[in-house]
UniProtKB/TrEMBL annotation:
InterPro entries recorded: Kelch-typ_b-propeller, Kelch_1
Key words of the record: Signal
Descriptive protein name: Kelch repeat-containing protein
Region named Disordered: 343-400
Organism: Kwoniella dejecticola CBS 10117
Amino acid sequence: MLPTLALFSVLTALTATVSAVPCVQFDSSWNLYAFGGSEDVKLGANTTWAQPQVSPLSTSGRPPWTGTNSQCILSQTNNALYVVGGDSSDLSKIYVYNFASDSWSTQTTSGAPSDLGNSRSSSVLDHDTNVIYTLTTSSGLYQLDMSSVTNSAQSSALAWEAVENSSFSVDGYSVTATQAANHIFYFGVPNTAAGSANVFVVHYAYFQPDAQAFSGSSQFPDTAGQAISIPTSSDSVPYSMVFVPNDFSNTYIATHWTDLGDYSKTDDAPFATNLINSTQTLAAPTSQDKTASYAASPYDLVQIDSTGAIYYYANPVNGDYTVSSGGSWQKLSYAVTGGSTGSSNSTTSAAPSGSASASGSAASGSAGASRTASGSTSASASGSAASASGSSSPSSGAPRGAARGDLLGLAIGVVALGASMLL
């Protein structure tokens, strides 16, 4: 009987690890944190990453980290973390971490869509309004106003509100969204031209009818993946977006800027006009894991894969919003443990050095801009009208449910073996 009990203990451990996925994020002073393992930890500023000084965080009120598409979103102005999808038993809960006080609180919500949390890039926090926007694949775009929450949950529930349906088909779409210049961009929408992304204009609350084309020598593919914004050191709206497609062809830096009062104006852009609506490239991540989580500061890009391994790319973007040349992804000596043990979506391979590619002339579009990992500015810009089209068809994104199939198969085998020993 004892061997059988031991086998069932193994099964329990396996089933406990298959659901959790870790994430990384920065605070507003650009200290790095890792969440979702057996403990959440502070890893400090990038000057310490050669030998990280690991500080465990409070466990009181922390998420159970059971969601398969959890997102860790920085509210830079409030120096707070919002965790979306951290509890698989109730995806509508938003966990709020106050970086300054090392404390967790839980924000309850009402009216959440049934298909909340389509992917690890489905929710975007608007920088200026502190409103979360989530695109679902069955009920359109929803918003959750977090402006009253800032860095601690309030006692009453916040209501999710339906905004509108997208202007493009989301059938089978693994939502891949992020923000630049008050516009939310959707990468990898099925049947959208390569190098183009669909757009939701936050301040006017509408989807552009056509996709926005980006210039550059290397067009990003029409496939889903992961996307984040690069924050500015001045706490302005971000202008640079990071897109890592599921084909791992490159790490794409898409820049966008728009004058909200006059889309035809370009003289106030924080970088050269040929960077407006442009794409540049860095090396693909070393760990080519479709379920990885990403974060950015003005100075670094960071990835944590489903095994808990952490990689970073130092100084990816210059102060003039061009990408740096000669960089590469480096592995941190610290890894998150006690969370997921891996996924069938994960493969690790050596990545080439991260040299720059791209900029090019301004593409047509009603939006434009970029942000860099060092938060300074340059001059000029030229933008314009939208182009491309977002339409229907099946998604190119890999199904999230395929993850961790090998572990589940092993668990089933353990059950069968245990049952045979009982007989």
